[in-house]
Amino acid sequence: MGRLLTAILIMLTAVGPETCHSSESLGSPAAPDSPGSSAAPSWFRLSPSASLGFFWLGSPSAAPRTAQLDELLRGLGLPRGGGTLNDGTITAGLKQALEIGTANAVAATGTLDGFFRNEAIKILLPERVRRFETTLRAVGLGPQVDEVVLGMNRAAERAAPAATRIFVDAVRGMTFDDARRVLTGGDTAATDYFRARTTDALAGAFRPTVERAMDEVGVVRQYRALLDRARLIPFLDVEGLELEPYVVSRALDGLFHVVAEEERKIRTDPTARVTDLLRQVFR
């Protein structure tokens, strides 16, 4: 994915401010040719359905820019003049990459042990209780601690599949500016986009499932009983915490962590490009 992103950035850079027309959203038609402009290479002229908002090089400086772009694309292993990698293919490849990456993240977290066995995202006791965990285990409350931890992670695993539709909607709603930031950003630019656009919707979708799952296995009851037992221990000042919002927040953190991992794979690992379109675009 890194080579594709670089190539598109080159296109954006090559089109200087004097020849680039703004576009507010994916799918905006290209501006009409200006009188007297030189003909652009046919491979770079975009169709009206183009969704990344690239516009053809029509200024007097187009020739050297086109030559520079052609040379850089050759070095990246991407099609040059006359190639088949048009704007529609690039857009489709970008969106498919994002949809596959988020689908993989949901599949990885929304399964049995998706959270519980992944040490990077496993939900532990809230910090204000966890600092006393060693003491709790020392006085025989280890099994109760383990039950609460397992229940929180099972709730997160059940909630994760609700993210699929929300992520897909976020991809389809990308504007040109969104796409530009993703294409020119760092290794987790797409994850940052999803976090900014979907956190509220995901929290709303996760909350009922988390509450229902924790109620079914009695996690909240077990947690409160654990706190009550802990408060009987001399010198322990254990402060309680509403568990449902905590689990929702930690579930979202874990999901976005895995989304970021999937994004890095698609950007850097050829084996993560699992469709013909991704192999065509991200070669």
**What is the mean pLDDT?**
74
Compute the separation of the termini in Å: 8 Å
Query: What share of the residues lie within helices?
Result: 55-70%
Residue share in β-strands: under 5%
Radius of gyration over all CA atoms, rounded: 25 Å
Element-by-element helix/strand order: HHHHHHHHHHHH
Number of helices: 12
Label the structural class.
Answer: mainly alpha
Shape summary: elongated
Q: Stretches where pLDDT falls below 50 for ≥5 residues?
A: 4-82
What's the β-strand tally? 0
Largest sheet composition: none
Summarize the structure.
This protein is mostly helical and 283 residues long.
Describe this structure in words.
By secondary structure, this protein is mostly helical. It has a domain at 88-281. Helices cover 61% and strands 0% of the residues. It has 12 helices and no strands. Helix 3 (87-109) crosses helix 11 (243-268) and helix 6 (142-159) crosses helix 11 (243-268). The longest helix is centred in the C-terminal third of the chain and has 29 residues, at 189-217. It is elongated, with a radius of gyration of 25 Å. The termini are close together.
What characteristics describe this protein?
0% strand; 12 helices; 61% helix; mainly alpha; 283 residues
List the topology elements:
Layout: H1 2-14, H2 62-76, H3 87-109, H4 127-130, H5 133-138, H6 142-159, H7 163-172, H8 176-184, H9 189-217, H10 219-231, H11 243-268, H12 276-281
